[in-house]
Amino acid sequence: MPTISAVRQVALSAGRDLDATLAFWHDVLGMTVHVRFDPPGIAFIMAGDVRLLFTDGLPAGTVYLDIAGLDDFHASAKAAGVPFTAPPMLVHRDTEGLFGPAG
Fold this sequence. Notes:
By secondary structure, this protein is α+β, with helices and mostly antiparallel strands. It has a domain at 9-80: 2,3-Dihydroxybiphenyl 1,2-Dioxygenase, domain 1, CATH 3.10.180.10. The chain has two helices and four strands. It has a four-stranded mixed beta sheet, covered by helices on one side. The longest helix has 11 residues, at 18-28. It is globular and about 45 Å long. The protein starts with 8 loop residues before the first strand and ends in a 24-residue tail after the last helix.
């Protein structure tokens, strides 16, 4: 069995509009586009040590982010016109510390 020390890249769907996807990740979340290739219409954003690959042709996924000041971020993003399907919510209280600090 190999030893995997880190996740380096995650592929995510850009939907039908790579420009709009990158605008969200840059303008709303404050992340920097690392590199973009047109054609074929792919782009990479660095999220810490993980490279996010955006392209079309992939099914939609869900990304969970740690955001300091989540309620303030949600209010400002909503005021800026970002559509949300639900308000911020606690998904799981990790009292055992399986996914980070216990709490």
